[in-house]
Amino acid sequence: MTRRADGHEVSRPESPLVVVSDAHVVHKARTGGLFARDRVYALTGADLTIAPGETVGVVGESGCGKSTLAKVLVGVQRPTSGTVSFRGSDLWTMPPAERRVTVGAGTGMIFQDPSTALNRRLTVRQILRDPLDVHRRGTAPQREDRVKELMSLVGLPKALADGLPGQLSGGQRQRVAIARALALDPDLVVADEPTSALDVSVRAQILNLLLDLKERLGLALVFVSHDIQTVRRMSDRVITMYLGRIVEESPADEVTDRSRHPYTRALFSATPGLLDPIDPIPLVGPVPSATRPPSGCPFRTRCWKADPVCAGTMPDFAAASSPGHRFRCHHPVEDGQSTRDLVAQAVTTVPEATAMAEMPREP
Ligand SMILES: Nc1ncnc2c1ncn2[C@@H]1O[C@H](COP(=O)(O)OP(=O)(O)OP(=O)(O)O)[C@@H](O)[C@H]1O
């Protein structure tokens, strides 16, 4: 059984749709010149399972690896190590042609900015026909029918079929991008900040459209956003990432005041309107560089609960008291402890945390 965002329990088929196991993504640093040796640890040891039909939200500060995880899930980013299986088949050991079909037909991705994600020289009809042509879906008339069906599915008037992206509003462009992601009837759609480039007035419409499509089509949806309130509203389950690591995974209704990882609590405490009007939990300094992540727990340099144990190892996942809730922390928040208490605790121990932040990092 999976708990939906509205609190209802729904039964899901047992076999997972996507399983990511111990995935690491390491890039060469973009800056530093031709002979730079710096590596960016964009994703470290990610384990994640997505069930058919569920919505998983991914939150975390800028640069923590959310987009990298999203791209790994839809087979756009090959992990440096680790595995990604889609409907039981390992994506990166199958022949490339098979992977293109598996990923192309089974997944869809919606990007932040539809202005850059859509080819400006193609009409809406051409944009929506393209995946059908590439994957040779049906006859020419059937493809035309599918284009019409997709436009109606996302609420685009027929009259826009011959329009170019530049002639559409931001909201209409994002509808085209959503329709394109749905063209091949995927099981999984990953939406990476799908509303952050849109006017506030159309954001709710696009979010409602995604929720509606997800229910109607039985899609699994991975929803990446900085907007924690929205993630919570959209998702069944929330993943918190910090500096390339998944540090907590919990049912959406537990992320505010029942999260066990100090970072998740701090992140949510800084979201206006989510909890009591209290000050956010204070953290020490900025997020460390992804080229030199701290040893052990990556959050320890900013955490008010950190001690030398945290500099030693990254703990394995521990299960919280409720199903589907797990976290990786040596000194988790106690079950039932209020965020208000944590603010008070952090305020008194931040000087110690500052000292911890000065501990040596890995070379
Ligand atoms: N192709 C690349 N080459 C070098 N570094 C990269 C590359 N792609 C991502 N990174 C780095 O990897 C880290 C994770 O990036 P990612 O885009 O996944 O983070 P994010 O959480 O999605 O950030 P944001 O919320 O700002 O979009 C960042 O430090 C980023 O600069």
From TrEMBL:
GO terms for biological process: peptide transport; transmembrane transport. Residues 20-268 form the ABC transporter domain. PROSITE patterns: ABC_TRANSPORTER_1 (PS00211), ABC_TRANSPORTER_2 (PS50893). Pfam families: ABC_tran (PF00005), oligo_HPY (PF08352). Keywords: ATP-binding, Nucleotide-binding, Transport. PANTHER family: D,D-DIPEPTIDE TRANSPORT ATP-BINDING PROTEIN DDPF-RELATED, TRANSPORT ATP-BINDING PROTEIN. It comes from the Bacteria. GO terms for molecular function: ATP binding; ATP hydrolysis activity. The keyword DNA-binding does not apply. This is ABC transporter ATP-binding protein. Signal peptide: none annotated. InterPro entries: AAA+_ATPase, ABC_transp_ATP-bind, ABC_transporter-like_ATP-bd, ABC_transporter-like_CS, Oligopep_ABC_C, P-loop_NTPase. Belongs to the ABC transporter superfamily. CDD domains: ABC_NikE_OppD_transporters.
